[in-house]
Amino acid sequence: MNAYKVERWTRQSVFFSAAVGALLLVLAVGPLVFPPGITDRLTTLFIYIILAAMWNALAGYGGLVSIGQQLFIGLGGYALIRISNAGVPMFPALILAIVIIALVALPIGELMLRLRGGEFAIGMWVLAELAHFSINLDPLIQGETGTSLLALNAFTPGARRADIYWMGLALMILLLGTLFVLLRGKIGASIQAIRDDEIAAASVGVKVQNGKRVMFVLAAGGCAAAGVLNLATTISYQPHAFFGIQWTAYMLFMALVGGLGTFEGPIIGAILFFSMETFFGATGVLYLIGLGVVALGFALFIPRGIWGEVEARFGVRLLPVGYFLKMVEGEKVK
Amino acid sequence: MSGVALTATGLFKRFGALVVLNNVDFQVSPGEAIGIVGPNGAGKTTLLNVLSGAYPPSGGQVFLAGHDVTALGAAERCRLGIARSHQVPRPFAGMTVFENLHVAAAVGGGLAGQAAYDACVDSLELCGMTRVANRRAETLGLLDRKRLEMARALATGPKILLLDEIGGGLTDAEAAVLVNIIQTISRRDVAVVWIEHIVHILLQVVTRLVCMDAGRILAQGEPREVMADPSVIDAYLGPGAVAHV
Q: I need a labelling partner for A104 at 20 to 30 A (CA). Which of A152, A283, B6, B64 fits?
């Protein structure tokens, strides 16, 4: 065998990772320097990035297209209302709600992962609707009237804004970090293989169903985190707003436009979606038409999404999840 | 590496009313190289799918080194040492060639770190793919995709290698290279089962030939004797052709 080296960090990815680290440091001191409006908007951006990344984890890597991820957004919010109502302090309650919904996702996954393709997608939506109507029956929620996260009244608006921002930033880093670590390791290689071809993946020893389970639970926990954060920013819990299908539309848009099955793509998609909402959201119907046109345009002309196209065309890889083989010329080992 | 035998007894596979495998007995011993030939629709690929665990059989049993593996899926069988290539290549398109092999070595072969890398590089060199190691698999042409199928299967460190029409569309020079590769694999005590339409390249490698037709094994044994068997000629050229040969 000829001598060789395997590299995982390229100069490109070292530079990019350093830049991301620096950006996160700047974001970490955000609430101390940004005006309140910006802090609030950035929290919303973190929620979008979490949602986009989690939908991508499920659909892009696990091959599981779901149009019912609002199930976990709604359940996350509901769990927080209930836990907080039981007297658990605000921030432990946030974490507890996310963990509980991730655990609830385990048996749901066992059941739903028996379904294939379209059945799974619609089945998830049916589950979301079922959960929506069941939660309406809870006297605490008062049907569609909803309720508020009263415990937040104990905080001054400034402290609340900053704390929720940090919570959002921390959860975003934690969830995307988890996905990154998974992707870099053996599980990630398996998951990428499943993404590209399930039958071939099984033929090289990948237990396809296990890989899907991991993605399902991660995506469920991530969507619950987004639901919890959304409740913390909006304060009021109205079931139809949390279990609405519009969440799926947003996630689909962000993941598809950014680049399904790439790590970077959904983040770019989330930033694009967030910018469109920020600048054109006030135009109402026109904004929605615009979103539709953009989504359609990408589906027709750039089906790989922004980052998928960049990766395929220029071979860039900003994150060191891959392997690069270098042969050492003329040298032998063994 | 010591070889392991793969045995199948009384295999049936039905798709609805269609019987694709009809009571097939099959055995491959350590280090043996078996060729499978037969007209289209004979059930060759289905046999490979049942042996590799891609499909469960409708009846019959599969044993690996004496253990019943009939209930195990493709992933488990791969981890136990059965690897395969696909007739229509199924690359992991978004990953590089090296990464395609690495997932096979790490998951199917159960290797980690340097040992996994070594298995990949060894397999790349054997299959002549080092020059495209860092290319995304979706950019490969058909020939390299076929090579990748074999290289990836080899990276799992198989005891039994199932090849499905790996030689289709090759020039004579390319076929000679392929024969060389498979002979090397065979010398490593890996049992090879190779489905191929191009009989003359098959005959350079295999020690035993199996001819299938309509879901049954029509003839098997010494390759040239099998090819001369009247029932085999009938199956390929139609009844009555024997008289003209």
A: A152
> Residue A197's Cα: distance from chain center in Å?
23
Contact: B86, A199; criterion CB under 8 Å: yes
Mutation for testing the A interface, residue in B72, B77, B84, B92 having most A CBs under 10 Å: B92
**Is the CB of B216 inside 8 Å of chain A's CB atoms?**
no
Q: Are A27 and A42 in contact (CB under 8 A)?
A: yes
In chain A, whose CA is at the least distance from the CA of B94? Answer: A196
Residue type, B138: E
How many CB atoms lie under 10 A from the CB of residue A117?
Answer: 10
Please report, for residues A41, A126, A288, B160, the alpha-carbon distance to residue A68 in angstroms, rounded to integers and kept in the order given. Answer: 25, 7, 21, 43
Count CA within 13 A, CB hemisphere, residue A237: 31
Domains of chain B (ranges plus CATH)? 1-81+159-245 (3.40.50.300), 89-157 (no CATH)
Buried b vs exposed e over B29-39: b needs ≥16 C-beta within 10 Å? ebbbbbbbbbb
Average pLDDT of span B73-78: 93
CB-based contact (8 Å) between B55 and chain A?
no
| Helix residue ranges, H only, chain A | 11-28, 30-33, 36-55, 70-85, 90-112, 117-136, 157-184, 186-196, 198-203, 208-234, 239-242, 246-258, 265-280, 285-301, 305-314
Q: Which residues pair with B220 in a beta bridge?
A: B210
Contacts of B124 in chain A (CB under 8 A): 325
Percent of chain A at pLDDT exceeding 90: 47
Interchain CB distance below 8 Å, A205 and B99 = no
Q: Which residues of B touch A331 (CB under 8 A)?
A: none
Residue B17 tokens, joined: 């009313």
User: Residue A280: what pLDDT?
Assistant: 87
What ipTM was assigned to the predicted interfaces of this complex? 0.91
> What's the gap in Å between the CA of B190 and the closest CA on chain A?
17
- Which phi and psi (to 5°) does residue B170 adopt? -90, 150
In this complex, the residue of B94, B98, B156 whose CB is nearest that of residue A192 is B94
Q: Which fold has domain A2-332?
A: ABC transporter involved in vitamin B12 uptake, BtuC (1.10.3470)
Nearest to A228 by CA among B91, B209, B34, A220: A220
pLDDT given for residue B242 in this prediction: 56
pLDDT at B115: 93
Task: Please list the residues that pair with B37 across neighbouring strands.
Answer: B211
Cβ pair A326, A289 in contact under 8 A? no
